[in-house]
Design goal:
- The chain has 11 helices and 2 strands.
- It is mainly alpha-helical.
- The chain has 2 domains: about 80 residues, Winged helix-like DNA-binding domain superfamily/Winged helix DNA-binding domain (Arc Repressor Mutant, subunit A), CATH 1.10.10.10; about 130 residues, GntR ligand-binding domain-like (Four Helix Bundle (Hemerythrin (Met), subunit A), Up-down Bundle).
- It has a two-stranded antiparallel ribbon with strand order 1-2.
- Helix 3 packs across helix 11, helix 5 runs antiparallel to helix 10 and helix 7 runs antiparallel to helix 8.
- The termini are far apart.
């Protein structure tokens, strides 16, 4: 008994921060590296989704490392994760580039997205919990405040609305595919998109949420399909001016400074 109690005490002294004279174990170098990689990955992802990094733009590991004060190894790992998500293309002997989908591929991606988004609405209609409804209402309120005032923020929030719906399904496979497709669609709009009314998008989001709350799966699915089709129709070829990657990433690096 004494031996067992001593063993328990020893275990507690290592892992329990309330244990006398002890604290939680310090994070390992590997844990810190993973955290740093995730931060750089998310910052790059946001820069692409917010259309700061343009389709086809080269992503040099050294420039990314300089921008974030990180090693080339971390930059390489972050780029690899983005490649898996379809946001970055890794070309042998040439390096990494922001994915550059063709207009035909863009149409195909939106067809897939429409199908996935309908599945999301079917999963959620009439099944949202009060806390989830509140979360959706709060997000739409953020979209309303950003509409007409901050185009970049509006674009980001519009995409996150769809990701939030997917997460609320609890279906991890669906979440993964919706995340990849929505991100890919953001790239397509960055390349072929034209300015559009964010007020229209927000009003469509509100209607979708209302239909989900009412449990009207057919209407929610119809509204979502029309909404995604409308987003796809806002396509017009435009040329974008190139900017130095360090300048583009500077504000994203500031967000994760100190990690």
């Amino acid at each position: 008994m004494k031996t067992e109690r001593s063993a328990r005490g020893a275990a507690r002294s290592v892992n329990d921060p309330t244990a006398k004279g002890k604290g939680p174990p310090a994070p390992s170098a590997e844990t810190i590296a993973i955290s740093r990689t995730e931060a750089v990955h998310e910052a790059l992802r946001q820069a692409i989704i917010e259309q700061r990094l343009q389709p086809g733009a080269k992503l040099p590991e050294d420039a990314i490392g300089d921008a974030f004060g990180a090693s080339r190894t971390i930059a390489r790992e972050a780029l690899g994760r983005l490649a898996v998500e379809g946001l970055v293309e890794l070309k042998p002997n040439r390096g990494a580039f922001v994915a550059n989908p063709s207009l035909d591929e863009g149409r195909d991606v939106f067809v897939v997205r429409r199908g996935l988004e309908r599945i999301v609405t079917e999963c959620l209609a009439g099944r949202l919990k009060p806390a989830e409804i509140e979360q959706l209402r709060a997000h739409v309120a953020l979209e309303q405040r950003a509409a007409g005032a901050n185009e970049v923020e509006s674009i980001r929030l519009a995409g996150e609305f769809h990701l939030l719906l997917a997460r609320l399904t609890g279906n991890h496979v669906l979440i993964r595919y919706v995340t990849e497709v929505v991100s890919r669609c953001s790239l397509i709009l960055a390349m072929y998109g034209r300015p559009h009314s964010t007020d229209c998008g927000v009003s469509e989001h509100i209607e979708i949420v209302d239909a989900l709350i009412a449990g009207d799966a057919a209407r929610a699915s119809q509204l979502m399909d029309h909404h995604v089709a409308s987003v796809a129709s806002r396509a017009l070829l435009q040329e974008k001016a190139e900017r130095d990657i360090r300048d583009v990433l500077a504000p994203y690096a500031a967000r994760i400074k100190g990690l």
